[in-house]
Amino acid sequence: MFALYNLRASSRVAPLRHLHTATSAPRFNIAFDIDGVLIKGKQVIPQTRRALDLLQENKIPYVLLTNGGGMPEAEKADQLTKKLGIYINPDHLIVSHSPMKSLVSKYRDANVMVVGGEGSACKHAAHDYGFKNVVTPEEIHSVHPSVCPISTCEARAVPWTEKGLENVGKPVDAVMVFHDSNDWGRDLQLCLDALVSKDGKLDTIKDSEQLHNTKQTVPIYFSNPDIVWANEYPVPRFGQGTFRVCLENIYQNLTGQPLEYVTYGKPMKTTYEYAESLLDKIDPLPKGPDGQPAKRIVYAVGDNPYADIAGASGYGWNSVLVKTGVFRTKGHENHHLHPATTVVDHVEDAVRWIIAREMKSK
């Protein structure tokens, strides 16, 4: 079962001939970024549907690998299904915080502050992963409005029936930034409060000597390092990586020490290992004479050289850089620091180039 299934009754793109036979499927996979490749802001990029039809017709297994997220995978998949008019299997979707499931074994019963996203969406994602005690900056602000008196978000009451409000007064054992903050002032303040607190108690702060001479005790995790990302606006917008840079500078200025943190998402190796494990389930490779699976051929299609291309190249995947998002250039000039295997105009060209290259190699 592949990642997407066409729900539309419209005409379909004719398959390229001889890519596969009735008894064999293509022995390569594609990992697509979403923002700047398939979608830009709230708009579907025009060539997206034709590209996905080509994959469907040629039975090419693929996954969606994005530094976006901010909600449970099932909810994100449903959102994409409605937007694209094509079924998105949530089991074949990797959002930035998907690999953070690996942290559950360490923090299952800990009190975790989950930052980012709209409302309680990220909190629900964390609960789905298995984190039992989750609190959000919004919940803390609703109970203690004075934690950020200049917040642009009104400290509205959060229903007590929502699990987690009872965790507001408990020490924070870890901070996990699941998605972009929707209130940087409030969230920077509360992240910093946790980092400089005495044993995670948000209403405390270490004394000056402790701040400058003791090791950071509350760990912080970020789901992606993107400094910028692309939406409908003509130039890229700040991403979660910029939020992290701000927090790093504030922490260093206050303590004289560098912030210690762990980052997931592209271009981090952990994200590609997670994606490869998913592809092993979706499209198991046949074993060779030595009993070992054949080497998997994967093409990553992305718009951000620093995330999509750097990550793919570092992991040994092929890469295709499109010009519909962060990366802009005249002609097909490659990126000077993180060159892709090839540069094309849009996602349909990417799929056609990949298919043609694989046909030539047969």
Automatic annotation (TrEMBL):
GO terms for cellular component: mitochondrion. It comes from Linnemannia gamsii. GO terms for biological process: glycerophospholipid biosynthetic process. InterPro entries: CDP-alcohol_PTase-I (IPR050324), HAD-like_sf (IPR036412), HAD-SF_hydro_IIA (IPR006357), HAD-SF_hydro_IIA_CECR5 (IPR006353), HAD_sf (IPR023214). Pfam families: Hydrolase_6, Hydrolase_like. Coiled coil: none annotated. This is HAD-superfamily hydrolase.
